[in-house]
Amino acid sequence: MAVHYEVEDTTAVITLDRPERRNAVDAETAQLLVEAFLRFDKDESLSVAVFTGAHGTFCAGADLKAISEGNMNVLQVEGDFAPMGPSRMRLSKPVIAAIEGHAVAGGLEMALWADMRVAGRTAVFGVYCRRFGVPLIDMGTIRLPRLIGQSRASDMILTGRSVSGDEAVAFGLVNRLVEDGEALTHAKELARHIAQFPQACMRSDRLSMFEQWDNTEAQAIQNEMRRGLAVISSGETVSGATAFSDGKGRHGQRVES
How many Å from the N-terminal Cα to the C-terminal Cα in the chain? Predict the structure, then answer.
């Protein structure tokens, strides 16, 4: 199976496993990824997904060998199904990419799709598809400049050069840089940390953050308030305020649910 799905407590671990293609994604694998992330999003017992690649590589992009043989990934302008699979999907819960080795071309776009990125020190990022006339069509031209700014995004998109883990951190492309081989472990720890927070509030704030890109400032303010009022109405805010009043969670301490 090219995609593995495992559950550890409140975390889903979704792993690309195509060593013969350096975890490149063909049409079938894209479908499997969509199914895996939909399964995660619908499971109320799960809070965070960790997305990674097996055998020391995150993802080398689309499977160019399959494309050269006429087996093209799905190409459609409308809808949530993207060429790499889930990269247009807006899930209700966060995804953390655990990156070792190469995250290039469509693999870079999949890393950009995740909410956060934890990478091994010698991880490599790049728009390698620049070399082959393969366009960024999994929101790479949208997410990359939004994450790291247009000047740095232009550097990557126009040159197709390799970007090291250290440089990726400086760019803001990577959130956590760890020793090689430890990205998955650290990503799981981060997932457990996020899962300990009141989930309705965290998920609402996360979605409001995404939705503001689509809105004017005035619309974004209204949307943020609408979502915030829904969280307050759920009782989660009063519960948290009561815990604070009782002396819990102060000075950075965690509040046990």
Answer: 36
